[in-house]
Amino acid sequence: LRTIINEFDEHAIEQAILLKEREGGQVTVIAFDAEGVDDILYTAAAKGADHLVKLVASAGAPANNHALARALEPLLRELQPDLILTGVQAHNELDGPLGPLLAEALDMPYVGYVAGAGLTSGSITLRKEYPGGLVAEMEMKLPGVLGIQAAEKPPRYVAVSRVRQAMQSAKIEARPVGEVDATGGLAPSRMFQPEPSERAKILDGDVEHVAEKLVEILRDAGVM
What we know:
Order of helices and strands: HEHEHEHEEEEHEH
Shape: elongated
Largest sheet: 5 strands, mixed
Strand content: 15-25%
Low-confidence stretches: none
Number of strands: 8
CATH architecture: 3-Layer(aba) Sandwich
Number of domains: 1
CATH superfamily: HUPs
CATH class: Alpha Beta
Radius of gyration: 24 Å
Number of helices: 6
Structural class: alpha/beta
Mean pLDDT: 90
Distance between the termini: 57 Å
């Protein structure tokens, strides 16, 4: 199977590049080794990323976000970034624990479901989305971690020719990772398709007829 980038991670890369273009700095994109990950990293370089790092583990990429956070922590401590951006969730773990786990391990603040950010002196102003279409604007001191729901602009398209150019000019730094502690993740007990319910009943007719039938059904069920 060929690896494709998680939609939210793609938005995180875009937001990082937007901040770089507006405020300066450098963008480092980190990914675990997998089939097709080089193409993902070179595409990030074609978009504007400055450094590409591929983590190589003997047992392959971590199977859960707890293990992934433990594997990323030493490298992030070494790099000492001002801001860490991750996708707010992954396709295989919809509760989105990677950002909070990294923030806890690195003793940094975390804000998730972010949809836009701007740097100020020593802090970052961000827009956080809430259910119901609500948006909050807040300020967070740096360094910190953001879980990106959506970048300020849609992820930019780059032509295949630019990706090929990046393959010639950009360098992927391969970093070995020791044995990864895979404990702490959730293991599904089973996957199944829910059985359809046979208790649903559609009531047709005018309002009076439907009301009479509804009362009859409720009486038969012992509710009335």
